[in-house]
Amino acid sequence: MTGLPSVFIRTAGCNLCCRWCDSSYASRQTRGYERTVESLVQEVELYPTRFCVITGGEPLLADDIHALAERLVACGRHLTIETAATLAPNGIACTLASLSPKLANSTPKTGVADAVRHRHEEQRLQPDVLREWIDHYDYQLKFVVCSSSDVEEILALLRKLERNIPPEQVLLMPEGVDSASLTNAGESVIAVCKEYGFRFCDRLHIRLYGNRRGA
User: Fold this and answer.
1) Residue 188 and residue 24: Cα distance in Å, rounded?
2) Which residues share a beta bridge with 9?
3) Residues 61, 176, 198, 8: is their CA dihedral positive or negative?
4) Cα(116)–Cα(97) distance, rounded to whole angstroms?
5) CB half-sphere exposure, 47, CA atoms < 13 A
6) CB-based contacts of 32: which residues, under 8 Å, 6+ apart?
7) pLDDT category, 176, cuts 50, 70, 90?
8) N or C, which end of the chain is more exposed by having fewer CB within 10 Å?
9) 2 DSSP 8-state letter
10) Radius of gyration over every alpha carbon of the chain, rounded to an integer in angstroms
């Protein structure tokens, strides 16, 4: 979906606490601005694109998320839901499920309470929930790659899921919040993608606008 103009709806609140989260202003808050389903749909319709993405935080935690998703799909929008896939879909309307299972590299080492760190580690991977998404939706699996050890963890998870997952539905994204770090980290990630047939996922918004909100 890289390069497609899309309307993003970002929900507040998350059940995880990823070390490299670039939207902690949303994910570590329990409440954002309250909006009605209808007001969001009306605003989405102002934009000249049929592509819409619901992201977070963790969208599956948001009140009325099922109603919002149903309305957007009914209005003809191509709806992507970006989720860590720790929460079951429960029949949510969705054109593409962008599943982002969290690897060990996501667990914070410092800066958070031990209880938060332990909760994150316990909840970050839910294979049964991942299978439910994979079995019922068009999907992609997107992983943040920080080091070569992450590749073995990804391959082990794919085997554990026991599903016939086409390699082109696996996306690898280098960690980085500026163009220079993305370029440096991206070289090794590209090599892995070529070796296994995975897709390379660049962070186009960082390259175009930098690491800032509202771009």
Assistant:
1) 27
2) 54
3) positive
4) 27
5) 16
6) 10, 11, 12, 13, 26
7) low
8) C
9) T
10) 17
Nearest partner of 125 among 146, 102, 152, judged by Cα: 102
Domains of the chain and CATH, by start? 7-209 (3.20.20.70)
pTM of the model: 0.91
Q: Is 18 exposed, middle or buried (0-12, 13-18, 19+ CB in 10 A)?
A: buried
Distance (Å) of CA 181 to CA 63, 108, 189, 204, 211 = 36, 20, 12, 13, 12
Q: Is 138 exposed, middle or buried (0-12, 13-18, 19+ CB in 10 A)?
A: exposed
For 83-117, the pLDDT digits (tens) are: 999 999 999 999 999 999 999 999 998 888 999 99
- Among 42, 77, 23, smallest CA distance to 205 is for 23
Tens digit of each residue's pLDDT (9 = 90 or more) over 109-134: 888 899 999 999 999 999 999 999 99
> Are residues 182 and 176 in contact, defined by beta-carbon separation less than 8 angstroms?
yes
Angle of the 37-44 helix axis to the 65-74 helix axis, nearest 10: 40
Question: Rounded to whole angstroms, how far apart are CA atoms 66 and 59?
Answer: 10
